[in-house]
Amino acid sequence: MYMLPRYDEDSDPRNDHLDNRVTTELGPDLANGDIYVRQLTHKRYEMKDHLGNVRVVISDLKAVPSGRAGPWKADILSWNNYYPFGMVQPDRHGNTEGYRYGFNGMEMDNEVRENPTTGTVGTGNSYTTHFRQYDPRSGRWLSLDPEMKRYPAFSPYSAYGNNPIWYTDPLGDTIRVTTSKGKYLFTLDDGKTELQTITAKEVYDQGTQWFEPEADNYMPLLDKADDLSSNPSLKHFTWGQVAKFAEKDRFMIAYYQKMYGDWKYVSEGADEFFLVTVGGEPYWADAIGQIPFAVDYFTDVYEDNANKDKSIRLTLQKGKEYGEGKLGGKMDNSNTYDNYFLLRGAKWAAKRYNAVKGSGWFGDDYDLKKTEHSPSNLGKPISEQDAKKYDLK
After folding, report:
1. 198-252 pLDDT, tens digit each
2. What's the whole-number mean pLDDT along residues 372-389?
3. Looking at the structure, do residues 242 and 357 belong to the same domain, yes or no?
4. Are residues 380 and 240 in the same domain?
5. Rounded CA Rg of the chain
6. What is the DSSP string of 153-192?
7. Is the pTM of this model over 0.70?
8. How do residues 15-47 score in pLDDT, each as one tens digit?
9. Inside any domain, residue 23
10. Which residues form the domain of 25?
11. 114 in a structural domain
């Protein structure tokens, strides 16, 4: 539990019906050398739990013990116990309607769900947030999620990913990213001031990404955990390790799913982790997994034609044809991050290698000479200019 002040200048003093309350405080007026009198009961302190639920509200009054013996007591104005989705538990709350804020710190809107027979207010039966109305009895929002196009896997009316024990949504809007066990990983910017918390797997399933600004479903990375690069829920790499794997010459069949060139699958690569860090930054493993294919295919065709731009385009074309990693897959011409990482790999290889006139051995017209172009350049996203040049946008 933690305590936060909430100022309520329009509320009436609550001490009129209470005994043994100190309703004023005396103190020095340093400017005039006199005393001042401060009227109490206009300030509220919220006692919140780990989800931001207002459990107890106290004022700034000090309750004097009977007979003035013993410790002073807090002046409790209201208290609440909630079911998981926010409905107050019968007979386990007090004066709930006397304070405006409750579950998740949201503002109660009691008159919306009043009893039509008795005319009494429906205490805690409806909440108003910045974006939507919430019904804690059904655990559902009463209107569509304004960001529903970003999250097609979720019902636009569902709340907290149907898991209110882990997640909160005080504004009714969007996300921050954790492991399945709730450990914080990083924060993405959706343009709002606060973020809902959901797991990395849910973010992945939504198609959201933060590493290619020109690709679809982009949300900028705002923050990451200090220990992200050592978190055992992820596998960790340097760009040098990625480049070392990518520069091995393989048959193209090696890049089919679960073959020895499938970086997402093999132990030398992501080893079936879907989220990794490279150079300390988080990436989806299937994004990084496009790079080895792109580098290998680029060097194969560049060795034949010695034309870098043509080789980049051929690599993109072939990558789109076999983007699903299996025979008979569908051509992928989408503006998704997979194709951007194909272009990353091909562009990097174009600067990593230069073609020189070969000896003609083994039918090759050209030989490739490696440059000092650093593997760290694989970490640079594709520019808008290059995205348009290579028909990704």
Report:
1. 899 989 998 999 999 999 999 888 778 889 999 999 999 999 999 999 999 999 9
2. 96
3. yes
4. yes
5. 30
6. TS-TTB-GGG-TTT---TTS----EE-TT--EEEEE--SS
7. no
8. 333 333 445 555 555 555 555 566 777 788 888
9. yes
10. 2-135
11. yes
Asked if 119 and 254 sit in the same domain, the reply is no
Helical segments of the chain, H only: 200-206, 239-246, 285-288, 290-305, 308-321, 337-352, 384-389
Burial string for 268-278 (b: 16+ CB within 10 Å, else e) reads ebbeeeebbbb
Task: Count CB neighbours of 332 within 10 A.
Answer: 15
Q: Cα 392 to chain center, whole Å?
A: 26
Residues forming beta bridges with residue 54, ordered by sequence position: 48
Closest Cα to residue 54, out of 121, 115, 5? Answer: 5
Q: Per-residue pLDDT for 147 more than 70?
A: no
Contact between residue 352 and residue 301 where contact means Cβ atoms under 8 Å apart: no
Domain end call among 82, 106, 135:
135
Alpha-carbon distance 294 to 358, whole Å? 23
Q: Please say whether the beta carbons of 120 and 108 come within 8 A.
A: no
Fill in the amino acid letter for 98: G
The whole-angstrom separation of Cα 393 and Cα 389 is 9
Count of the separate structural domains present in the chain: 2
Q: Is residue 325 domain-resident?
A: yes
Task: Report CA-CA distances (Å) from 262 to 257, 272, 286, 317, 350.
Answer: 6, 10, 9, 19, 22
Instruction: For residue 233, give the nearest of 187, 281, 277 by alpha carbon.
Output: 277
Within this chain, do residues 127 and 240 fall inside the same structural domain, yes or no? no
Return the number of other C-beta atoms located less than 10 Å from residue 64's C-beta: 15
Which residue among 104, 135, 166 closes a domain? 135
Examine residue 206 and state whether it is found in any structural domain, yes or no. Answer: no
Whether residue 260 is found in the same domain as residue 118: no
User: Are 244 and 369 within one domain?
Assistant: yes
Neighbouring-strand partners of residue 237? 278
Which residues share a beta bridge with 85?
Answer: none
Sorted by sequence, the CB contacts under 8 Å of residue 192 that are 6+ apart come out as: 171, 173, 174
